[in-house]
C-alpha cells in the first residue's frame, strides 16, 4: 500500500477562509486606524440611525391608520399577558391559602361548637340537680316551719300550764293565809 492521502475539500476551504479572514481583519484594522474613516463611518451610522428611527415612526403611523398591530404592540401585549398570568398565579395561590385557612377555621368552629354543646348539656344537668336540691330544701324548710309551729304551740301550752299551776299555787297560798 502506498501513502495515499484522501482529498478533503473542506480542509482546503477552511484554509482559504482562514487566509481571507486574516486579510480582511488586517484591512479593517488599517481602516479603523484611520481618523477620516472613523469620522465617515460615524456620520454614516448617525444618518442610518436617524433614517431607521424615522422609518419606525412612519411604520407605526401607517400601522395605526390601518389598525394593524406593530412589533412594539405585540411585545407590549405579550408583556401584559405574562404579567396577567403572574398575577393570576399569585391570586390562585392566595385563594388556596384562604381555602386552607377557612377549612381549618371551620374545623375549629365545629370543635368549639361541640364543646359549647357539651358545656350546655352539663349546665342543664347541673341546673336540674340544683332544681331538685332546691325542691328538697323547700320541703325541708316547710317541715322545719311546721316543726317550729309545733314547738311554739307546745311551748305556749307549757307556758299556759305553768301559769295555771302558778295561779293555782297562788290561790292555794292566798287561801291558806286567810284562815290564820
Question: What would you report as the Rg, rounded to the nearest angstrom?
Answer: 61 Å
Mean pLDDT, to the nearest integer, reads: 87
Strand content: under 5%
SSE order, as H and E?
HHH
Describe the biggest sheet? none
Output the number of helix runs.
3
- Point out poorly predicted stretches: none
Tally of distinct domains: 2
> How many DSSP-defined strands?
0
Features:
3 helices; single chain; 180 residues; mainly alpha
What is the strand and helix layout of this fold?
Elements: H1 9-32, H2 35-66, H3 71-178
Biased composition (Basic and acidic residues): 154-171
Organism: Neobacillus bataviensis LMG 21833
Region (Disordered): 154-180
Describe this structure in words.
This is Polyhydroxyalkanoate biosynthesis repressor PhaR. It comes from Neobacillus bataviensis LMG 21833. The model has no long low-confidence stretch (mean pLDDT 87). The chain folds into 2 domains: 55 residues; 99 residues. The protein is rod-shaped. 91% of the residues lie in helices and 0% in strands. With 180 residues, the chain is mostly helical.
Can I get a quick summary?
By secondary structure, the protein is mainly alpha-helical. It has helices at 9-32, 35-66, 71-178. The protein has two domains: 14-68; 82-180.
Amino acid at each position: 500500500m502506498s501513502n495515499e492521502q484522501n482529498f478533503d475539500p473542506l480542509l482546503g476551504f477552511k484554509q482559504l477562509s482562514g487566509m481571507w479572514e486574516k486579510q480582511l481583519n488586517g484591512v479593517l484594522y488599517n481602516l479603523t486606524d484611520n481618523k477620516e474613516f472613523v469620522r465617515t463611518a460615524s456620520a454614516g451610522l448617525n444618518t442610518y440611525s436617524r433614517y431607521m428611527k424615522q422609518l419606525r415612526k412612519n411604520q407605526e403611523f401607517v400601522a395605526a391608520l390601518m389598525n394593524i398591530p406593530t412589533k412594539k404592540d405585540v411585545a407590549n401585549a405579550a408583556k401584559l399577558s405574562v404579567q396577567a398570568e403572574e398575577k393570576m398565579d399569585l391570586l390562585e395561590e392566595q385563594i388556596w391559602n384562604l381555602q386552607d385557612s377557612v377549612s381549618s377555621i371551620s374545623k375549629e368552629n365545629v370543635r368549639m361548637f361541640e364543646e359549647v354543646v357539651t358545656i350546655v348539656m352539663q349546665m342543664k344537668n347541673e341546673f336540674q340537680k340544683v332544681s331538685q336540691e332546691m325542691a328538697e330544701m323547700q320541703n325541708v324548710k316547710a317541715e322545719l316551719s311546721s316543726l317550729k309551729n309545733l314547738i311554739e304551740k307546745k311551748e305556749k301550752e307549757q307556758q299556759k300550764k305553768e301559769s295555771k299551776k302558778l295561779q293555782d299555787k297562788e290561790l292555794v297560798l292566798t287561801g291558806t293565809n286567810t284562815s290564820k
